[in-house]
């Protein structure tokens, strides 16, 4: 087979298999997490509850084979939190991928660009000072606004001759992030002891407060930003080659960069507002997707979204089982499980770069 | 497609890097820009491929102002080989070449059979078929240049812009690249450092000094020992190529102690 055939074949088949595997994994985690918890529900029954709510008139919903408690446990508690974990993982991973492309830096992610720090300060201000201190906003609203304000500040401070300068954005984001984190730490240290636990849980991330109603905003944000990004997948590829090359290929580079930052920040804000500051996902999942299917955005973006969802859903399952009945914050699980996996992958990835088959 | 620059001035960071440059290349001809480092060659090219907007003057592609056309339309008319290689993320070679189809698609749509056929032909033409499934970042300088040229070819443009295309290339590929480009039949504008390469392959030459076009015409009229001495500050001797009779320039280092136009590189 010629090198050309191999290249074409890889670009068309590899992502399909990966997507299929991730999709299966997502369904499996949904069912297993539906069957995990204090109220006893078998995986089969968990699957039946989920299907029963989706298919009108499913016979097993009314024949008495499922108790009311089982139905509630799966549909009102376990499913929403697993779905929220999935939405948050997909959203943060996609936001990370877009930021990495926008500033052409593999280290970019919502944390590095100060977005998460802004959300954290907003949320912690509500927890420690009460929502009256932030114009009566609820916690999620304050977190969302904090994320947007941080993004706007980074964008304004890193403008150079009216354009967003990528390296400046990263440095500005890191500096502003430190400043905001310092304020958050101060608020945490000076607040009453009973608030500290809530602060830590928000800063490290948790989806335990999920309900079906709270899924709507992050779901809409994820869908909108996914469509936006996929429609520009080729232009994102051109951005990887450099600003001049992208311009020469007809891409309006500065406008696209601005749009990407805004889209990624809105998505991050929408997610962090309901799930807290879950770290690591935005940085690591996009790179994992690149290692799996290559850096072409037409292939890596769908894999990034699916892998982000799968990763955080599995992490949440671990977060509420390993130390049951106590729950561990999600951010701790993502880092403890994710870091070793990722370290192993990048060593493999380096081998691939040296010309070994991916 | 002809390319006309009409009194183009470009200001970068408050400094006028190109002063009222006027040039004209007819359809299918090869224009070489020569001049010392910092004389404004690359900047002039950037005004042509829409990276730096001219402070004044116009760039016309087949009569249309390049800065009034939509960016994508300019990309369909002009393909560029920049000096930028950019690669912290790895795209495979085939994906890099497929980027050349961007001005014709945009968006998510898959690659058509025609896209792949164009890529196949372009890779054959530049002798890089065997590289198709390699990561671009793992290639040598010369291999990269072949791949980037293939990308420019699949863009199917009528104008080709090359910014010092032979930098870091071995002599065999320098000659191969110039022959390849010359054989495309498209209007070509190239910044070149090697005066002999320019003399051998260009139909017209523009000499830049301190951002101004100081000489413009066929190589034999422009690349004279006087002009070369004046612009580069070195002594040049005009010879004839022993095989094809083209002008050949030899340099000697008995240059004056203080070159007449010494550069100031900050």
From TrEMBL, chain B:
Q: What Pfam families does its record include? A: ABC_tran
Q: Which UniProt keywords apply?
A: ATP-binding, Nucleotide-binding, Transport
Residue span, ABC transporter domain: 3-235
Q: Which domain of life is it from?
A: Bacteria
Q: Which InterPro entries match?
A: AAA+_ATPase, ABC_transporter-like_ATP-bd, ABC_transporter-like_CS, P-loop_NTPase
Could you tell me one molecular function GO term of this UniProt entry?
Answer: ATP hydrolysis activity
| Record has Nucleotide-binding as a keyword | yes
This chain belongs to the protein called ABC transporter ATP-binding protein
């Amino acid at each position: 087979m010629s090198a050309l055939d191999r290249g074409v074949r890889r670009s068309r088949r590899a992502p399909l298999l990966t997507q299929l595997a991730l999709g299966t994994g997502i369904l499996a985690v949904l069912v297993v997490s539906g069957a995990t918890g204090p109220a006893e529900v078998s995986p089969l029954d968990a699957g039946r509850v989920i299907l029963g709510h989706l298919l009108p008139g499913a016979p097993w919903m009314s024949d008495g084979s499922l108790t009311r408690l089982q139905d509630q446990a799966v549909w009102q508690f376990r499913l929403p939190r697993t779905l929220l974990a999935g939405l948050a993982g997909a959203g943060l991973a996609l936001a990370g991928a877009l930021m990495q492309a926008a500033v052409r830096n593999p280290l970019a992610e919502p944390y590095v660009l100060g977005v998460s720090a802004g959300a954290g300060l907003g949320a912690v201000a509500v927890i420690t000072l009460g929502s009256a201190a932030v114009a009566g906003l609820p916690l999620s609203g304050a977190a969302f606004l904090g994320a947007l304000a941080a993004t706007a500040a980074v964008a304004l401070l890193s403008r150079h001759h009216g354009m967003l300068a990528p390296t400046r954005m990263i440095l500005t984001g890191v500096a502003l992030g430190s400043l905001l984190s310092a304020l958050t730490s101060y608020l945490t240290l000076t607040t009453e002891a009973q608030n500290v636990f809530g602060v830590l849980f928000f800063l490290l991330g948790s989806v335990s407060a999920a309900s079906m109603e709270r899924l709507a905003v992050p779901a809409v944000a994820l869908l909108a930003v996914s469509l936006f990004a996929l429609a520009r997948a080729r232009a994102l590829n051109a951005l990887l080659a450099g600003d001049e090359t992208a311009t020469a290929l007809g891409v309006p580079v500065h406008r696209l960069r601005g749009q990407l930052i805004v889209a990624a920040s809105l998505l991050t804000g929408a997610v962090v507002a309901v799930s807290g500051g879950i770290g690591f996902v935005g940085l690591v999942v996009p790179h994992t997707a690149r290692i799996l299917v290559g850096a072409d955005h037409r292939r890596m973006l769908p894999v990034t979204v699916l892998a982000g969802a799968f990763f955080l859903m599995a992490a949440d399952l671990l977060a509420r089982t390993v130390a049951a009945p106590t729950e561990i914050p999600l951010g701790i699980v993502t880092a403890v499980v994710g870091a070793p996996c990722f370290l192993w992958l990048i060593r493999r990835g380096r081998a691939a770069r040296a010309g070994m088959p991916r | 497609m002809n390319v006309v620059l009409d009194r183009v001035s470009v200001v970068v960071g408050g400094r006028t890097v190109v002063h009222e440059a006027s040039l004209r290349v007819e359809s299918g001809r090869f224009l070489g820009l020569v001049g010392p480092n910092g004389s404004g060659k690359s900047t002039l090219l950037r005004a042509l491929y829409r990276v730096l907007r001219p402070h004044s003057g116009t760039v016309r592609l087949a009569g249309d102002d390049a800065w009034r056309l939509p960016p994508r339309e300019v990309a369909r008319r002009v393909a560029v080989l920049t000096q930028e290689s950019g690669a912290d993320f790895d795209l495979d070679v085939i994906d890099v070449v497929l980027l050349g189809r961007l001005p014709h698609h945009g968006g998510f749509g898959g690659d058509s059979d025609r896209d792949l056929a164009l890529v196949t032909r372009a890779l054959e033409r530049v002798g890089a078929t065997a590289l198709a499934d390699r990561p671009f970042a793992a290639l040598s300088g010369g291999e990269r240049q072949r791949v980037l040229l293939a990308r420019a070819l699949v863009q199917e443009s009528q104008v080709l812009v090359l910014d010092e295309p032979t930098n870091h290339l071995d002599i065999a590929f320098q000659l191969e690249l110039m022959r390849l480009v010359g054989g495309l039949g498209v209007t070509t504008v190239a910044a070149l450092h090697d005066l002999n390469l320019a003399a051998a392959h260009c139909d017209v030459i523009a000499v830049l000094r301190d951002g101004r076009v100081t000489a413009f015409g066929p190589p034999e009229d422009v690349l004279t020992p006087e002009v070369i001495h004046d612009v580069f500050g070195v002594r040049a001797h005009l010879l004839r190529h022993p095989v094809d009779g083209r002008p050949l320039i030899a340099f000697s280092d008995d240059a004056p102690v203080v070159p007449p136009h010494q550069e100031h590189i900050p």
